[in-house]
């Protein structure tokens, strides 16, 4: 009863705040009777629903879902409820020239889509386990997320639909929920639907939480959610380019003409490849772009599953770094940012001169296995 | 061959080659540890189909038991994709006669085995037979693990291969389809207590007799199958039947 009363008071306060919005903030909105507020954050979301549906539409739906390194612009004020769909299914993807494997994916690629929301936003998430279907993502479908359009334009991973039935689940590190409910495993043919609130700003990993998590993650089931702070970062007005990089390890070994997941190598933490954005050539075939004098922001996530990353930009110093992307965690003047598995940082640097800037994991055993890319800077432009 | 005695394997048709074989009982230490201490099980003799049930065999069953046709099966016994690959409600696709039947729910698999005078094998029976099959095949732990992880990387290719059984011994336990067992949803336990984490998130160490890749491969088969529903049907999940020995 006490909880109920407090919840009602909190709701009333929230509604009152929402009725008189501050500039740039629409305020929090409680949606379900079970919800309550602590320190301005919403908890107590309703139970997940698991059901069967006939669905042949686009595998990824939502306006703020992009392929890394792209990040969707938040073109709305205050908070928003996002309808997000990210189906889970298999796809043959290339991770290095001549090296392809049948990945388990969220949305058809490795890594999965980058979801961009604002702190306080609500996400209504839906995912169908379509691992027993051939899901083609290279043909445009009406209503598809920008993520799929960008994949169709990229062709780097040479996607081919494959069938590999397997139970899967979704664990958003950006959500604060009872994991055994929302992150529960669904069988092929089932759909799960649940909500979460982006209570904390930062860049968060999502991944499949079905055992073996090591295997499911190494097979390709991970991606990033960027939760931009409600009040922004202090440098928002000065940022010229904003990108997302997801680092991960691959554990593949050759078997006949194809490559398979190597659990022994995964247990021994001996990756065959370490990649930025899913391919050893992602950021050399399609380097990041900026101009001399630009302030570049990178949301960098180390998805692991087991390794660390020491991210460094050759020729630059990180002017400001927000650990985990939370604007309260500011570090200054860093040469390298060390990240454990599933850790992130939002990094900014000034591009000092026109030229090519190598992006590396300064743990060079990783860089030599693929964790390298480039930013190409053009001449300084008048601002 | 030490443990296995073939029976009734006289003719050479695929159906007869896949006749049940005797799995001789013995001592067995399960790979998945469901107790506070390592458990040694004493397995009794039992019979097990030499190979997974084929489309042709399943078609014979459906013709004899029309309630298991895909157009008459009660909705509660499947997930909507039961025998989806079949040409009609009572005939499989032309090229599939000698392939392992798939897209069969646990309910349907049980009904088939009951109609043959048998039952689905228990998890321990299946794994015990699998351990003997590994010896019979002369597979090292590494080869066995690679076989299973290769299957998981590309299960459809394996499931689409015709069966090619050899008479009088177990066949195709790892290289065609994953198989239903009676207690596929067995909870992970720690003695009398259900384990609160249920090995759900990378916390499998408590359930492993050892941390070799072969044990992980076995555990992964166990754990992934646990997440199916009794109604689930997929294109890579089949079954074989077990029979008590009088």
How does this model look, in words?
The complex is a heterodimer of chains A (383) and B (246). Chain A is mainly beta. Chain A has helices at residues 2-19, 146-154, 179-182, 213-218, 263-267, 282-285, 364-367, and strands at residues 36-38, 41-43, 49-52, 60-61, 65-66, 81-86, 88-96, 99-106, 114-118, 122-128, 160-161, 171-172, 190-197, 202-207, 222-228, 241-250, 252-255, 258-261, 273-276, 288-291, 295-304, 309-313, 318-323, 330-334, 336-339, 343-350, 355-361, 372-378. Chain A folds into three domains: 1-44, no CATH class; 47-228, Immunoglobulin-like, CATH 2.60.40.420; 236-378, Immunoglobulin-like (Sandwich), CATH 2.60.40. Chain A is 13% helix and 40% strand. In chain A, a hairpin with a 2-residue loop joins strand 17 and strand 18 (258-261). The longest helix of chain A is centred in the first third of the chain and has 18 residues, at 2-19. Chain A is globular and about 55 Å long. Chain B has a four-stranded antiparallel sheet with strand order 1-2-5-10, with helices on one face. Mean pLDDT of chain B is 86; it is low at 1-13. Chain B has helices at 14-17, 55-64, 106-115, 123-137, 141-153, 155-159, 213-226, and strands spanning 4-5, 21-23, 26-28, 41-43, 46-48, 178-179, 189-190, 193-194, 237-238, 242-244. Chain B has one domain. Chain B is globular, with a radius of gyration of 18 Å. Chain B has seven helices and ten strands. In chain B, helix 5 runs parallel beside helix 7 (213-226). The chains are: A mainly beta (383), B alpha+beta (246).
